[in-house]
Write a structure and sequence with these properties.
Structural class: mainly alpha
Helix content: over 70%
Strand content: under 5%
Order of helices and strands: HHHHHHHHH
Number of strands: 0
Number of helices: 9
Largest sheet: none
Length: 171
């Protein structure tokens, strides 16, 4: 069944039936619950902070040392689903990179997939920052991450420096 057929069927329901259906979905599916919660009370700043916490714990869990890069990226994707605020999204993406850099500097050399993940988020963040005309706002943080990767292997510093130069030094 496609979206057209679903819309057609939903159009046949009265208000009470729609409310009942939404309440049932709310109770059964976590993603739907989060979507409806945000739709009813769109608090971008609270969502932003929740996603920042998820990213932090992806790199620095309360227990153990297990990296959860996918969970950090999922937090960014979840924010993107609910909010169109480019500035807050860019902040989250840079937060992911900052934590990746901090993790490396605290625990030493990691591996190529780790560095590729962090570098790709950095590159995407800078593209978004440029697109949203936020270059001045994020310039210091963007440069700081490049500076903090000096001496890190696997081409990590070079990847971040290249992204930085393409964004900030090339017109």
């Amino acid at each position: 069944m496609g979206i057209g057929a679903v819309k057609k069927e939903l159009a046949r329901l009265d208000k009470e039936e729609l409310i009942k259906l939404l309440a049932e979905l709310y109770g059964k599916d976590k993603a739907t619950r989060e979507f409806l919660d945000f739709s009813v009370n769109p608090d971008e700043k609270a969502l932003h902070m929740k996603c920042r916490d998820k990213i932090l714990y992806a790199f620095f869990p309360k227990r153990g040392y297990r990296l959860r890069l996918a969970e950090g990226k999922k937090a960014i994707a979840d924010f993107k689903k609910y909010s169109s605020n480019g500035e807050l999204l860019a902040d989250l993406m840079l937060w992911y990179v900052e934590n990746g850099v901090k993790y490396t500097n605290e625990y030493g050399d990691i591996d190529m997939p780790f560095y590729n993940s962090v570098a790709s988020v950095y590159d995407n963040a800078l593209e978004l920052i440029k697109q949203e005309h936020l270059l001045t706002k994020f310039a210091e943080r963007a440069e700081q991450m490049v500076n903090e990767t000096r001496g890190i292997g696997w081409g990590f510093h070079d990847d971040l420096a290249g992204s930085y130069m393409r964004t900030y030094l090339v017109e």
